[in-house]
Amino acid sequence: MGEGPGASKELKGVAGSGVKGSGGMAEAVKQTAGAIGYLDFGRASHDKLAISQLPNRLGVFLKVSTEAIQAAAKFDAERVLYTGDPDFYLVLANNDTYAGWPLATATFVLVPKNARDPQKLLDFLYWGYKNGDGVSRELGYVPLTDTMKIGVRKAWSRQYNYKAGM
């Protein structure tokens, strides 16, 4: 393998230690003066860790928040809604919105095209969209914006002929 950082499984000349999972990372950061670690927003908030500000693509320094993550999601959801992307492919990281957190990511549920009864799964997910925002926040997740929920339901309608609540 070549020389230099990233050229092997171990970084040469870099001090640090490995930990297991988000909980291990949170504890290591808490217990180590000057430590830097990467955690999701919910875990960092729950553990009351100091969170750095980062510049987005437009050069605006932002502190991570539910609103900043939703701004990134809303920007891309609206792009998808107006372009009619059939796969609802989103990359929320570093998009062109002024208020959007540059490291936002989304979690996806994959529903096979040949699923035996996608209606039942989509009914469950739809119920979650209608009733799950509070629980999402309690667990440290950022709920989808209303715009994004509309876009997802439109994609379900196109791909699975889904009718909400049927």
TrEMBL record:
UniProt region (Disordered), positions on chain: 1-22
* PANTHER family xref list: PHOSPHATE-BINDING PROTEIN PSTS
InterPro entries per record: Phosphate-bind_PstS (IPR050962)
Identify this protein by name.
Answer: Uncharacterized protein
Q: Which domain of life is it from?
A: Bacteria
Species the sequence originates in: Chitinimonas arctica
